[in-house]
Amino acid sequence: MSDPQQPQQPAQPNQPPYGQPGPVQSPYAQPAASQGYPAPAGYPQTAGPQSGYGVAPASGPGSLGRTAFIIALITAALGLLFVIMSPIVIAGMRGQYGLYEVISLARSVLGLALGATALILGVIAARRGSQPVLAGIAIGVGGVEALGVVFSLLSNLLYGVLL
């Protein structure tokens, strides 16, 4: 048996001839200037910047406006649910209005937090120009909810001080 003969290929400019040791380099290492894959042997390396596969953004371009809109919808749904459930809760308490006031205060604080969040995220999304319609709806709903809760709390405080 004889050893199979390898055809002699001309040596590449940056590679040592076949059979001679060259500099040891990891097969996964890339040159510092290149961001893409290195060109295979025998193909010219293109000069200049190359576009690599950078880290993809965590969310799409309009997700902030969508998030603000969803928070505004949750805020409006919470307010509507409380308005619908108030007569049922009051009738079921049979004179325990202190508990109703605690539930109402908790709903107001949660509504204020959600409304302010929707308002702030909506303003940021509108300034960035990402989904301006959803951002505008979030600004409107969040602003109305936040102002409504603040005025409601102020009127209850004024009522408690005057009476």
Question: Descriptors for this entry?
Answer:
single chain; 163 residues; mainly alpha; 3 helices
Structure description:
- With 163 residues, this protein is mainly alpha-helical.
- It is built from 3 helices and no strands.
- The chain has helices at residues 63-93, 97-128, 132-162.
General form: rod-shaped
Total strands: the figure is 0
Contiguous helical run count? 3
Q: Calculate Rg over CA atoms.
A: 33 Å
| H/E topology pattern | HHH
Q: Biggest sheet, in brief?
A: none
Structural class: mainly alpha
Q: Summarize model confidence as the mean pLDDT.
A: 79
- Helix fraction by DSSP (H/I, runs of at least 4): 55-70%
What is the CA–CA distance across the termini? Answer: 112 Å
Q: What is the oligomeric state here?
A: single chain
Low-pLDDT residue intervals, each spanning 5 or more residues: none
Beta-strand share of residues: under 5%
